[in-house]
Amino acid sequence: MRFGLIGYPINHSQSPALFAAAYPGGEHSYELIEEPDFDKAYARFLEGYDAVNVTTPFKEKAAAAADVCADVVAACGASNLLKKEGGEVHAYNTDYLGVRRVLEERRIDGDVLVVGCGGAAKAAALAAVDAGHNVVVANRDELRAVSFVASNIGRRSSATMLAVGLPMLPAVLPSVSFIIYCVPVAIPSLNDETLAGKTLFEANYRAPQYSAGGSYEYIPGEVWLAAQGDESFRLMLC
């Protein structure tokens, strides 16, 4: 079977190496499909691939292009896996599956803070609330966060979601024990002092903004990459 990754730029991606390590026999292939235009990348997928992972900036366009969307894809409007099934293109979100697995392996006593409101952040917020945690979504564009939270009121979980702007971070941090960080730059209000005793799980593995060795526990982006990769490859081959 032939698999790939679409997004731009992706020449730094570790996905082909992860796939080769998971399936060393060479029975299946995994390639980078680096196109700056989504329509061209999607056309290449349709022409020659069984399934593709999707990364920035195409996750929302991938969800819109699919014929059938998994529940979480519809809820967050983003997909990072497109797969041909029965003559249709199905959209999945393995960011959700990977983050949920990481959360369920840990004991979390306080609320979960998700910083950002892009495709990965939305999937992370849904994973946390579906795992039973109260979630605060903090975003520079507060209205984007408010719209996302409002569209997901009444999900299966009894946990709650709250949307705030970044200036509100100092007010919400005392109730938070686990932070899922999904933006590409550091935020001054999240520093060694304010993060003390908490856990920060960063999505960015290429240019991380935080690191281990401070007053908080740090989970690097490679953990996210591996967790969602495991779920992604499982879905590709099932």
Give a quick set of tags describing it.
globular, Rossmann fold, alpha/beta, 238 residues, 2 domains, single chain, six-stranded parallel sheet
Write the layout of secondary structure elements.
Layout: E1 2-7, H1 15-22, E2 29-34, H2 38-48, E3 51-54, H3 59-65, E4 68-69, H4 71-76, E5 81-85, E6 88-92, H5 94-104, E7 111-115, H6 119-130, E8 135-139, H7 142-151, E9 161-165, H8 169-172, E10 176-181, E11 199-202, E12 217-219, H9 221-237
Parallel strand pairs: 1-2, 1-3, 4-6, 7-8, 7-10, 8-9, 10-11, 11-12
Antiparallel strand pairs: 3-5, 5-6
Helix pairs in contact: 5-6, 5-9
CATH topology of the largest domain: Rossmann fold
Order of helices and strands: EHEHEHEHEEHEHEHEHEEEH
Quickly give the CATH architecture of the largest domain. 3-Layer(aba) Sandwich
**What structural class do the secondary elements suggest?**
alpha/beta
Distance between the termini: 12 Å
> How many whole angstroms does the radius of gyration measure?
18 Å
Overall number of structural domains: 2
Please state roughly what percent of the residues sit in beta strands, choosing from under 5%, 5-15%, 15-25%, 25-35%, 35-45% or over 45%.
Answer: 15-25%
Strand order of the largest sheet: 2-1-3-5-6-4
Mean pLDDT: 94
* Helical fraction: 25-40%
CATH hierarchy class name of the largest domain: Alpha Beta
> CATH-wise, what's the superfamily of the largest domain?
NAD(P)-binding Rossmann-like Domain
The overall strand count is 12
Shape: globular
**Tally of individual helices:** 9
